[in-house]
Amino acid sequence: MSDDDPLLPVMLYIHGGAHLNGANKLHDGSLLAQKDVVVVITNYRLGALGFFSTGDSSAPGNYGLLDQLEAMKWVRANIRAFGGSPDRVTIFGESSGAASTSLHLLSPLSRDYFQQAILQSGASTSPWAVLLPEYEPRKYTEELAKQMGCSTQSSQELVDCLREKTAEEVGSADVGKPPAMLTVAWAPVVDGPGGFLPARPWDLVDRGQFNKRVRLMAGCTTDERSGDLASIPGVENGVSRDLVIDLLVDFVERYPRNKGFISDALLHGYTDYEAIDDPVTNRDNYIQFLSDYRYVAPVEKVLLTMSAGGVATYKYSFGYQPIPDTYPEWRGVPHAAELRFLFNMPSRFVNGAPTAADLDIADKMITMWTNFARTGNPTPSPIDGVTWQPFTNETRAHLMIDSPLTNGQFLQTRRMELWNDVIRNMAETDTCDNGGVASNGNTVSVVSAMVMIVSILLLAT
């Protein structure tokens, strides 16, 4: 390139993998780069090496996130040499990479290094995104230290001892089952004022303490958690309502308060009373239940709050399923299914060869992603006659990425409100015979709690 060539937009990708797995070499950014953007795909520390914490200054944690921040700083300092503009940077990620991207929207340390963000199936508000203080992050670090033969009496001694161990030793340690809200024990933590994450993500989002100088695009696949049911015998033919109820009873054990109220609200919210005994309907509703909990409702929360804060936002739902597909038909469009269309992954298509229809969806998706990086608008001109409408709290507009592309509004809004308002309030409210006390100290009567349940049941029917 010559000095006279215009600088190109930059897209910095943060891979997923539950904060435990993944690497940049698994993602080929060449298809994106063909649309005149500079693609940067970063590695960062994972597992214990990236996220162990003593809860104090000896090892506050969040090293993986700080690695991502260093990649942003590197882009700011060096990307001109590669033809990229340091002033037009879009960070994007999928799954835990999306949660990381969303946390950068909250961190005061990251705000000067990007102008736009894309969240694919993850958010800072996802229940697995952060190892919250009540989950006691230090206890996992102490368990790691014990397995490594290190003293836990002093944080600094513990850290100094761990530094003498090999990466293989630290990375292979099994520190036990994480809290039910999380997938693995190693995750970002709240490291307090002056740190990367000064407070709980939900609190920062609710208080409007996020980067308001950005544009945001976010969404999920239509069947995120279908893989969770893959081990159930005969699942291709559906599941019984009794099994769904049993699974739901196990699920609500993660909540310390109001299990009965929460169970009733969720059961009614995800029951189709016109097909209550239909196994396929029961299976599909349970997939949506898990998907909404882990991904869809948390992403909606971020979109709603940032839109209300003046941020230009766009929402998508990715619903395209190749015919034929490597996934069985009942799986629909599961978690990470969209990545093969962005990152040139032929092995994820039947016979290693995407069809003409698959390539058409890939081209549309890549065009919209790179348009967003270039202009802040995924469709500055219509694609197949469709202009992606911005998401607002009044319209809750979304684009269904399928063949054909279609605009829609209010996608499962009642279920989003069930998770983000009703279940959240129930989970944070202590109830008793004479009334309860919410986490903010306000008294909540049992009658009020029941009104919340009745209200959501009316909405869900």
Automatic annotation (TrEMBL):
Catalytic class of the enzyme: hydrolase
InterPro entries listed in its UniProt record: AB_hydrolase_fold, CarbesteraseB, Carboxylesterase_B_AS, Neuroligin/BSAL
Keywords, ordered alphabetically: Hydrolase
Membrane-spanning ranges: none
Domain called Carboxylesterase type B: residue spans: 6-419
Keyword Hydrolase: yes
EC number(s) stated in the UniProt entry for this protein: 3.1.1.-
Source domain of life: Eukaryota
UniProt xrefs under Gene3D superfamilies: alpha/beta hydrolase
Record family assignment: Belongs to the type-B carboxylesterase/lipase family.
Record's protein name: Carboxylic ester hydrolase
